[in-house]
Amino acid sequence: MQYIWNSIQSYLEKRWFLISLIVINFLGSIYGFYWYKNQLMASPKKWIIFVPDSPTSSTFFTLFLILFLFKKKAPLIEAIAALTSFKYGIWAVAMIIWGALAKDHSLIHLITIQSITWIDVMLIISHLGMAFEAILYVKKYSFGITELLISGVWIIINDFVDYTQDVHPWLPESISQIDHVVGKYTLALSLFTFLLFFTLRRNKA
Length: 205
Hints:
By secondary structure, the protein is an all-alpha fold. The chain has one domain (2-204). Helices cover 74% and strands 0% of the residues. The chain contains 9 helices and no strands. The chain has helices at 2-9, 15-35, 37-42, 53-69, 75-104, 107-111, 118-136, 145-164, 179-204. The two termini are 23 Å apart.
């Protein structure tokens, strides 16, 4: 496992690898905003910035990758990109699986993918990729505790607005009636994400 991790790390600064990730994240962001189009049109304009969580995250990560490609540092952008990409990557996967389990009440159906569509599989893979790349570049980030705190406050404010103003990402129908429970999980995930990157940052120092 360590060998695989070290092998992947060796590619992180290669130009072709960075450009590939930039293209993937950029196209994923465009598709993500398109995915949110109906919710964006239905949401109050004053809360629009809080609606498209995943594509906003991948947009920030795209910016980080572009800056990294040109050897530029932007600690706050890096921190926001890292925390939001990891958090919403994990969140989306959890919601898809949670929704599938709540629908069929059967782990067997989930394992055999009877309750998950090909679109769900695509979303799971892409969002796991978001979370993975956020961790992948952890040794390359330049952000400090100040930027980490600002980013942590941002994701918690986002949670507050999402679940008090009902502008959180639309949930699978099978769990749409327990959004208050989802809200608690989301806040817990935000706190976990902050603590994770705080620990990774401290270990890097």
